[in-house]
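Cross-posting from the modeling subforum.

Setting up a comparison between two proteins and wanted a second pair of eyes on the formatting. Protein 1 (sequence, then structure tokens):
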Amino acid sequence: MAGDFYELLGVSRQATADDVKRAYRRRARELHPDANPDDPDAAERFKELSRAYQVLSDPDQRSRYDRFGEAGVGGGPGGPGGADDLFGGGLGDIFDAFFGGNGPFGGGGGGSRRGGPSGPPRGQDIEVVCDLTFEQAVFGDRVPVTLKLPQRCEVCDGSGAGEGTKPVTCADCNGAGQVRRVRQSVLGQMVTTSPCPRCGGLGEVIASPCSSCRGEGRITADTTYQVDVPAGVDTGSTLRLTGRGAAGPRGGRAGDLYVHLRVAAHERYRREDDDLVTDVPISIAQAALGTRIDLPTLDGDEELSVPAGTQPGHEFVLRGRGVPRLQGRGRGDLRAVIVVEVPTKLNTAEADLLRELARLRGEEVGESGQGLFSRIKSAFS
């Protein structure tokens, strides 16, 4: 042994059991071979440290060590109870205490099985797309969503066992749900843990499967959920329904249902964040002289006063007539954008009136009949 056990751990001889444990945890992280990959002596020092902790953490061994030294606890590393024997079991116990059995040496010596099964696995999360009208997205609604997914078997109540029977303890893992295997390494015996292949990690097997679900504990069927859609959602919004996904096998809890929303376009309105935008077509005369029009909104018709001289692209804003805000109070605005429509066909009287207007305003306009085809015809005459 390279030194006194108390010195190796860095504690006094009056140290309590908690002092010893804290000291070992600190020193183990410093001296572990994985933390010192370039040090060829790291494995040996770690063995010595672990041996010291094994002795000082046990009241009987500590008492013998205090009275007789290392000879009182089994001699050196090669003797009974030494470091070689330690790596078959004791060090696994240490890592069990500190790391929940997930340390590099497993949870115990010789491939022993400890702990319990983690229980039936959770069911899968399910995703579905739900189509909404524009109005449903703006004002919210309750919509049905139908999908096919695994549900808990009502015949066996999810156990998977036939009538009058129940699951039995797996003989391969003794109900632990996992098996451990031992292999030798430079650091001693290394223990690996994996789910039991016979019971799939459940710790139980079905001797007489349920005739309805064939031992699965769940069956696949059509299910309809009524989904509450909040006001203000938009395409790309996702609603999470906890516990509405696939039921887990053998009584495992259900996963979640994710409802992805897709909103149809509106014939009149387009959405910009929480605002609604619509184009309002008016004539040249209405833009020049002003007018009053009935503007259809999602809340009903609204009278809009267009003053004389309104220019194309001008926006009239109706406060609070837009989309409800998902993350706050109130609603966005309704923006009405003026679009001045220029007539493409005029009769003679209409053309004469516009030509007279242009004359009064001193504006040059094309002569009557001087369109493109008229000019081409004139060129060949």
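Protein 2 (same layout):
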Amino acid sequence: MTYNIKLRRFKNEDVTALAEFCNDEDLQRYLLLSKLPYSIDDARDFIKYTKYCEKSGGEQCFAITLDDKLIGCVSYTVQSGCHGNSASIGYYIGKEYWHKGIMPLAVKSILEIIFQNASINRVFAEIFAENAPSARVLEKCGFVREGYLRKGIIKNGVVHDAVLYALVR
């Protein structure tokens, strides 16, 4: 099946849809930074954060839309200093859109945006080791597993192993 997904910047009108699909324990399980319950105010704060980062050059967040409906988020952060040739990515999508082949399309779209910056030649993602669906997304997009980070993530006071994936142009 072909999906008409697009990436765009977040808008204030996205607040309700964002709060609705982010207020899901399964979606939040593998997000590095998460909050439950996820309120309208949390969504409003996130959208404000994305607008600030767009101007300041920090994390660049994009809304994933399907037929103009907000369904998720994909972001990247250009690293600094001696790692300035690299960018990290993160992503999530509403649960009703899982396992449909949509997220690889969104990741490929963000890669196109990232690689417009000629100085970026490496994109990486750190994921929870037990998050097999995310690993499949990255592998479908050409990422290679580079390492296993024992006790690499602490979330809500619990230590988790992580896996590092990267794509080099």
